[in-house]
Specification:
Blueprint: H1 14-21, H2 25-32, H3 40-53, H4 59-66, E1 71-76, H5 80-85, H6 87-102, E2 106-111, H7 117-125, E3 132-136, H8 144-151, E4 155-158, E5 173-177, H9 179-192, E6 198-202, H10 209-221, E7 228-231, H11 236-249, E8 255-258, H12 261-273, E9 283-288, H13 291-294, E10 302-305, H14 308-324, E11 334-336, E12 339-341
Parallel strand pairs: 1-2, 1-3, 3-4, 4-5, 5-11, 6-7, 6-8, 8-9, 9-10
Antiparallel strand pairs: 10-12
Helix pairs in contact: 1-2, 1-3, 6-14, 9-10, 11-12
Length: 346
């Protein structure tokens, strides 16, 4: 039972725990830091005394010994208002936070919205405030990978970091969904149900790495067919505007692969307003399988599923491994499989 009042009105110290448990201060420290070479019965006794006394380790002192802050920076190159409105990022952040919490760490959220933000974030990351960083929503050719190289800070990227020419930035661990493969599944399904004039609404492929791969997957399938491509911005309104533009260009299109569920919901609204029945006239496939969106559209949305929260947890887990292993760990990256979830829109 934890005491709510400390003896004599003062906080119990490491020495108090050691004295009550009948062990040395160094043994108590090893138990607190979960270090090996302490007998099980001793660990249990020390933990009992810690609970009895209501002892709380001095975090500043622990940091001096362990050289760890138990804090991780989560850096997003997105405007704050978009980030918190998008359920994809909410799930991703939830996964990161939950995994960090299991390791006794917390997330510090940083945003890169303006060019001047890079210097500010670099100063923070290099100032010893965090043990590592998770970075996502990178643009092709983003300066973040080079900045991280200079800081020598353990880092995991959310999404495959790309150069401006589309090649992968080497030497960085990342977690990504199989964006290209998932897009291929979506378009192959549309072909298999007899659709021939298949358009796509992409993300901003000059700004989003995932958009580059999803557009490539669309093109992989439709090698010899006309490409009906309209770029949007991963928002519902962006999807609506892009769908309207596609219908103006090609009124007889019969299918559309949309690179996010959020945009697909906007596209379906425009199709309905223009008098096109889904899927009878135009079949629609989205990407992400955000159930709060995909199951609420009319009709429910066929879409490519990826485990977004699981990807967030993987990022945090990879980072934890990199921050706790001695030396420089081998670069390891994970591409999470995707699968097509059939509903009624296609």
């Amino acid at each position: 039972m934890v005491l709510t009042q400390w003896t004599n009105g003062r906080r119990p110290t490491l020495e108090d725990v050691a004295r009550r448990a009948g062990v040395s201060k160094s043994t108590v420290s090893r138990v607190i830091n979960a270090e090996p070479r302490v007998r099980v019965e001793v660990v249990e006794r020390v933990r009992e005394v810690i609970a009895e006394l209501g002892y709380v380790p001095n975090q500043a002192a622990r940091q001096l010994v362990t050289h760890r802050t138990n804090a991780v920076a989560v850096v997003a190159t997105q405007p704050q208002n978009r980030l918190f409105l998008d359920p994809f990022f909410d799930l991703l952040l939830r996964g990161v936070r939950r995994e960090l919490a299991e390791h006794g760490a917390q997330a510090v959220l940083l945003f890169l919205e303006e060019p001047d933000d890079y210097a500010r974030v670099a100063d923070f990351l290099g100032g010893g405030h965090v043990d590592g960083a998770v970075l996502f929503s990178l643009r092709p050719g983003d300066q973040l990978p080079a900045m991280i190289d200079r800081l020598t800070l353990p880092t995991v990227f959310g999404g495959r970091p790309l150069l401006r020419d589309g090649d992968t930035v080497r030497g960085h661990a990342y977690v990504d969904g199989d964006n290209r493969g998932g897009a291929r599944q979506a378009v192959q399904h549309l072909v298999s149900i007899g659709r021939r004039r298949i358009a796509t609404i992409t993300g901003p492929y000059d700004q989003e790495n995932s958009a580059v791969d999803r557009l490539a997957g669309y093109r992989d399938v439709l090698l010899d067919a006309p490409h009906l491509v309209e770029r949007a911005d991963y928002t519902r309104q962006g999807g609506a505007d892009a769908m309207a533009a596609l219908l103006d260009r090609c009124p007889d299109l019969d299918a559309v692969f949309v690179a996010s569920d959020f945009m697909a919901s906007g596209a379906m609204q425009v199709l309905r307003e223009r008098g096109h029945r889904v899927p009878d006239d135009v079949a629609v496939v989205g990407f992400d399988d955000l159930t709060e969106i995909a199951e609420s559209t009319d009709p429910p949305l066929t879409t490519v599923h990826q485990d977004v929260e699981g990807m967030g947890r993987l990022m945090a887990r990879l980072l934890y491994d990199r921050t706790t292993r001695a030396g420089t760990p081998d670069v390891s990256s994970v591409v999470v499989p995707t699968r097509l979830v059939l509903r009624e829109s296609a």
